[in-house]
């Protein structure tokens, strides 16, 4: 008999190791996160005590090698993201920003000394990182950034601000991208550095179980070795973003799956007119539509994961997955809410929380419009960004 949550049996394509990772992460989040995440979302808090436990599971920078990182496959990392976001996008964002953005930047572009200093502590969850690229007036167009880094006799001075930075208010180390005379460079800015402050963004309606912050650099003095030596030009931070977007296209499948599974359980238990609402044609039409789109998104993530493991994944592939899978997840979350009716608007059920979170996922790390233009250029050979 077919699994009603995975009608095509896509998960059967996983290796034994990948299934073990899936089951381990799923068991952890079901035990440690799912019972509490509704309250965290309502209160607008994120429990930092989870960080060491996530580190013990090897989830921080798990696709990286050395320095305490797990060295897992891209697909295995994607599966972990799927299970994390099945509980809440904020949890997946916490792990994704730590590993795919901050740790990846240091791993790719940092000196050996920087790697030795930060990566083992970040892999264990002892040190939290953030990634400062987006600015108040320059989101989709990072080339317009105004943050500057100027050389001094003893190193560098940074001035500028970054906005919508996940983990910013709790990070021990910030990877900040700034314009220099030699182009865009990355800098490691430890918390407590003179001239560096953070401000958490409150009153969010989305990603409430996540810390989102502004970073401010005002005559922020850094030593010469604070620069990521091999980071030159926008290709450096954009390559890190592509790693994070890969996690997103998998994570969206997890959010969609949880919404569909919640709606299915509710429909089979909710009785109206003397029968479960799952027995009515219109409800079955909704469930079938969700199941079809969920499996197609799952297959998309699986294929892109295999392409990445084979070294054949391009930016357009990741844009395809992010654009499609987040769009599908949002549609499923909204449809699931209609099945739950009034019950769907409370934190007792996950669907509206997922829908609210996915509104952020839809626009961060590349809006739908930007990913549409990436694919448009891949199809036509003509860039249409301006």
UniProtKB/TrEMBL annotation:
Residue ranges constituting the Acyl-CoA oxidase/dehydrogenase middle domain according to the UniProt record: 130-220
Keyword terms, alphabetized: FAD, Flavoprotein, Oxidoreductase, Transit peptide
Coiled-coil stretches: none
Domain Acyl-CoA dehydrogenase/oxidase N-terminal: 15-126
Any one of the GO BP annotations: fatty-acyl-CoA biosynthetic process
Organism domain of life: Bacteria
EC number: 1.3.8.6
Gene3D superfamilies reported for this sequence: Acyl-CoA dehydrogenase/oxidase, N-terminal domain, Butyryl-CoA Dehydrogenase, subunit A, domain 2, Butyryl-CoA Dehydrogenase, subunit A, domain 3
Cited InterPro entries: Acyl-CoA_Oxase/DH_mid-dom (IPR006091), Acyl-CoA_Oxase/DH_mid-dom_sf (IPR046373), AcylCo_DH-like_C (IPR036250), AcylCo_DH/oxidase_C (IPR009075), AcylCoA_DH/ox_N (IPR013786), AcylCoA_DH/ox_N_sf (IPR037069), AcylCoA_DH/oxidase_NM_dom_sf (IPR009100), Glutaryl-CoA_DH_mitochondrial (IPR052033)
Span of domain Acyl-CoA dehydrogenase/oxidase C-terminal: 232-379
Cofactor: FAD
GO molecular function, one term: flavin adenine dinucleotide binding
UniProt xrefs under Pfam families: Acyl-CoA_dh_1, Acyl-CoA_dh_M, Acyl-CoA_dh_N
PANTHER family: GLUTARYL-COA DEHYDROGENASE, MITOCHONDRIAL
Family in the record: Belongs to the acyl-CoA dehydrogenase family.
Protein name in UniProt: Glutaryl-CoA dehydrogenase
Organism for this UniProt entry: Kutzneria albida DSM 43870
